Structures are given as C-alpha cells and as structure tokens.
Amino acid sequence: MKFNMIDTTQNRQRVLSTLSHRRPDKVPYNLLFTKSTHEKMSKFYGDSDFEAKLGNCFTTIQGRPKHLWQEIEPDSLRDDFGTIWDRTQDKDIGVVANKLITSENVNSFQFPDPNDPARYKLFKAGIQNNCGFTVVNLGMSLFERVWVMAGMENILMAMIADKTFVHTLFDRILEFNLKSIENFCKFDVDAILFGDDWGTQRGLIMGYELWREFIKPRIAQMYSLVKSKKKFVFIHCCGQVQELFPELIECGLDVFNPFQPEVMDIFEIKRQYSGRLCFYGGISTQSLLPFGTPIEVRDAVQQLISLGQNGSLFVAPAHAIPADAKPENIAAMIEVLQNQQV
C-alpha cells in the first residue's frame, strides 16, 4: 500500500474545524497501536516507519515522564510515583504489583516534584515533531492514580467507610495535577488529555453519587485551569459513562474518548450532543477489527466518516489497536481513512 502524504497545516485546520463543530474538508482521524500490533503491521507493510505516514491528526506528548521510570528487573518498571508495573504479560501498560499509600501515610508520602525540569525534558522535541495539533497526555489523572497507589478494593471501601482518607488522597493528587497543568501550558501545546477510567461496560465503577462527591469537583478545577490557559480539554474514560456527559460538558470538557460502540449507541450519542461535545474513537476494537472482514471494516469506517462530516468527531479505534486485530482489517481501515471522500 502506498500511503498518502498529509499536509499538517490542513490537518490542523481539520482539527480546529471539528472542535468548533463545523464541517472539515476531511474528517480527521488518529490511530494508535499496541507494541505487538505495531510490530505486526511493520511486517505487513514491510515498513517499520509506517505509523509516521498515516496522517494522524494529533501529536501526543506524554505528561507522565517515562524516561524517569526505572527498570528494577526484566519486565518490571517503577514509575515516578513509585508504583511497580509488572509487564510480563501486558507489554504496554502492565499490572500494578505494589501498594504505596494507606490512611496512615497519606499525608506524609513523598510525591514527585511537579516543578522538576526533568519532567518536561522531551516536550520541545515533541512539539517540533508535531503533525498539526499537540496534545499532552496527563494520564492517570485522578481516580486511576488513587486506586493504583492505594488499591482498588481499598479505595472503593474507603469511599464509604473512610471518606477523610480518600478526600485527602484525592486532594494531594489534585494539587500535583494543577501544578503539572500549569507547567504543561507554558509550552506551545493545544490540549490536555486526562486519563481516568470510571466505567465498566455496565456502568460507573463507584456509582453516580460517589462520582459526584469525589471526582466531579476536582475535575472541574482541572478543566477550568486548562480552559483559562486557552487550551482544549480531552478525556479518555472507558466504559458506560454517558450518563455523565451533561456534567462533563458543564465542567468544560471538549472531547470525549474512546466513544466505544460496545457500550453506547455512537450514532444517537453523536446526534444528541453534536454542537456541545466532540467525540474521538468509534471503531470497535473488541469485535470489528479482530473478528470482522475487510469489507465490514470499510463499511463501518465509511459510516463514521459520514457521521463526522459536520464536525464533532475524530475517527479512531476505540483504543490502541490490540494484538488480536487482523492486519488486513487494520489496512482496510487505514485505506478508507486516507482516501476518504467527504
């Protein structure tokens, strides 16, 4: 396959038109790959640099400085907070292998310094290599950081039985994030992406009332700070969480990802919120890319392109493309996106 060369100036205008809920000349898209899938597609195309030729609309800079992580043994990494990630199976994220914070040490635990210049060492290079629109991925922005450091079961129980502990931990993370956001926005970036999974495929993990108590007031502060810097607010939040959309819009959210077709009617949701909220995703990574045919993939992607003709949609796989996705399906998706006729 011959890749089309994408004009990044046009790409940026497509993103801005989409964010303004206006018709772009072509619907912008963004494709991310797990490590195993990237290796598979490099072999499929005979080109290890194929990802740079796709025409992705976003350049992502990691706000979690992985160059500061330490490999403590093979497939075991310690992040900047001290969490150990076991990557013997999942090479992209891993499984949490320790717990750091309890009610006894919640006030004294040493957080990383958000003002450490080393945390922003790679920002300038990322901005120089941008493909039109630059997004800083804060990652694990609130609830995820809380449960990773203290344990999921412990936090869910403490949300009922030890609220003081949980509020204290949330506030410490909020303080760290606000200082980080201030530093991100000193660079020439366009948006901040918050990563915070609140849902399963059946609903909110902690339930609506606890979400409103612990999470909403704090994301409102973070989103407000981003907006005050004239940047856009993105969130990646897995699961069936669409009941929160009106309140997320109220807090200042611009773009919701991953827009999973398995947990929401993406066509109805897009119709309902078009003009108020943009969506980023929509291509099934659970069923279509692993189990569909190239014809089915082409049809589904073309439907999404049609859905995004009036703005408010960035077409993408719902997640980084997993290892079980078929190479011929991935290639079919790329072909339709690159050669779209709007």
List keywords for this structure.
single chain; 342 residues; alpha/beta; TIM Barrel; seven-stranded parallel sheet; 12 helices; 11 strands; 39% helix
Structure description:
By secondary structure, the chain is of the alpha/beta class. It has one domain (8-338): Alpha-Beta Barrel (TIM Barrel). Helices cover 39% and strands 13% of the residues. The chain has helices at residues 8-19, 35-45, 123-128, 143-150, 152-161, 163-184, 208-228, 245-251, 266-273, 288-291, 294-307, 327-338; strands spanning 59-62, 70-73, 76-78, 84-86, 95-96, 134-137, 191-195, 232-236, 255-257, 278-283, 313-317. A seven-stranded parallel sheet has the order 1-6-7-8-9-10-11, with helices on both faces. It has a four-stranded antiparallel sheet with strand order 2-3-4-5, with no helix packed on it. Strand 7 (191-195), helix 7 (208-228) and strand 8 (232-236) form a beta-alpha-beta unit. Helix 4 packs across helix 5. The longest helix has 22 residues, at 163-184. The chain starts with 7 loop residues before the first helix and ends with a helix.
Mean pLDDT: 95
Number of domains: 1
Count up the helices.
12
CATH class: Alpha Beta
Radius of gyration: 20 Å
Write down the secondary-structure element order: HHEEEEEHEHHHEHEHEHEHHEH
Span between termini: 22 Å
Give the low-confidence spans. Answer: none
Strands ordered across the widest β-sheet = 1-6-7-8-9-10-11
Structural class: alpha/beta
Could you tell me the CATH topology label.
TIM Barrel
How would you sum up the global shape?
globular
How many strands, which pairing sense, and closed or not: the largest β-sheet?
A: 7 strands, parallel
Q: Fraction of residues in helices?
A: 25-40%
Count of beta strands: 11
CATH architecture assignment: Alpha-Beta Barrel
How much of the residues is beta strand, in percent?
5-15%
